[in-house]
Sequence to fold (259 residues):
Amino acid sequence: MEGWGEAEGVCVRREEGSTWWREIARIREGAGSTRGGWFGDCIVKKVGDGLDTLFSTDPCLGGVPLRERFRRLFDLSVYQSSTVADMSSLGLSILIGGSDRLILIEVPHKVSILAWRLLRDKLLTKENLVARGIITPDAQYCVSGCGGVESAQHLFLSCQVFSSLWSVVRFWIGFLSADAHHLSDHLVQFTFSSSGSRARRSFLQLIWIACVWVVWTERNQRLFRNSECPLPQLLNKVKLFSYMWLKTTNCNLVSNYHN
Fold:
């Protein structure tokens, strides 16, 4: 009936209901807005596992959606409809300190795309280039000279040259573990291999992404510029990138790069 609303089986006139009920009735009919007013000012969404929260469009940080705070980045993003959980799997957002607190580590966009493509076997490795008919099978061998076919699995986990980076990184962090045989399993094992807080696991996830970035860029250096870095220098790059990414969103980070 026009002029009436219903809440839990009780009919009330809209003009007679409480302020919050009148606003909810307007929102339900599409005449109101979830921003501003009683509803927008008093309702807070707590982010749990992130499955039902959109990363860019839901207002989680200071009440302002990321699409509005970083409009240019949102326009360029390929993850405009992704949830917090989706982005967390890429290392872009990290839930730490409880189920209701969202802290971001700003991994560069090109790095997040690389990690996304790697975990879905969509990197332009030589094996994938052969499958697409772009290069011939005799050109699909690893640039390290190890003799293996350059698949993502080989390049990041099996190649004796590139995979050795994982060992020195684990030694630097201070824990031991065996490498998994699949990339997705490797990420999970590396992240959870050391007991500790959720913040520490988030840090290990960040280190994993940094290692992936260093390996891929080193591969390209050898392939296109015929130059290579020794293993200690690759480790230093992992340290530098991870520190820079942490420092981007943690201006008060007490540790300096050397620490």
In short: The chain has three domains: 1-43, 45-104, 111-249. Residues 111-249 form one domain.
